[in-house]
Amino acid sequence: MKVENRKSLYFEDFAIGQVFSSPRPRTVTEKMIEDYGRVSGDMNPLHFDEAFAQKSPFGKKIAHGLLGLSVASGLLHDTGIIQETIIAFTGGEWKFKKPIFIGDSISLKMEVAKLRHVGQAQGFVLLNADLSNQHAVIVQAGVWSLLVRSKPQ
Description:
Blueprint: E1 19-21, E2 26-27, H1 30-40, H2 45-48, H3 50-54, H4 65-79, E3 86-96, E4 105-118, E5 122-132, E6 138-149
Antiparallel strand pairs: 1-4, 2-4, 3-6, 4-5, 5-6
């Protein structure tokens, strides 16, 4: 079932099988990688030293895996579906499948996998999420658990 992205869905607005996609890709730049390294403290030469990275299995510098996850979180926000209704990102499972390179444009696709109402004011929404590059290769994927507000009574 394909659903258009829209603003601020409440828990009751979600249905198993709904699919949401980021409205536009985000391109990973060298500056993003440098900034992420400074903020996180992860200064691994695989991300910063071209000569070092050329000797790696990837052949060139790659983005931090957690930078990809962070961008995916921002792409979820870009859909607008939880901007005013999310209570918390409560966890998940995430796999780093392929490298993200400088210049890759990454997009997020999510499908509602499970819903669990808890109390009268909120519920858990489990999303299967795929982060893909411009070649439609899934670079990261997993399941996210979101705690979302119920509709006001």
